[in-house]
Amino acid sequence: MLMIKGLSVKYNQVVVLKGISMYIGHKEINSLIGSNGAGKTTTINAVSAITVPFQGSIEFNGRRIEKMEAHDIVNLGIIQVPEGRRLFPEMTVLENLEMGAYRHEGIVRSELDRVFEIFTVLKERMRQMAGSLSGGEQQMLAIGRALMAKPELLMLDEPTLGLAPKVVKTVLDIIRQINSWGTTIFLVEQNAKFALEISQRAYVLESGQIIMEGPGIDLLNNDNVRKAYLGI
Question: Is 1-67+188-232 a CATH 3.40.50.300 domain?
């Protein structure tokens, strides 16, 4: 579904991505792991056209997209849930979800029903201000808002950051359920164990370069990965 070839990105004169190549399989969960500052967020921001690469190509369903505008990327069905959630705190839960469906004609009732099916707490609190939700509930709302846009490719940037272990397990189950609907998932995570356990394929990014790739389960059992990212 997504093919990245020789992608390089720099901020001012500092090169933060150095010719990385990777692919995201159709209807799979693929992940990109690495330490803070490795370039993970820059990678998905390049796919979303938030940052502009100076070298390389990005193809989505066979179409070159690296020079497209961000709103056109969204219209193709590539939706990003950013790190930090970036909700509208003084708007209600329902209003935040409605913002996710802005590219459609009015509210897509079937999508709203689907969101409330997996996030029952959001249905219970649809009139509550988003800023008053707990961290875990806000993450659910951020994912729910993205689902309102009916993504083909859902990119999640650090969805477990700052969450309690019990909530992390809930997010894990939610990602699996969304994927079971046929939505392709690109997961960016520092929590390597979480990401590798659910990924068909994974990449390890270090200092702007892909240093390892393979099936998630293989990387989970790789001694170098276990020492560097799992503390084992």
Answer: yes
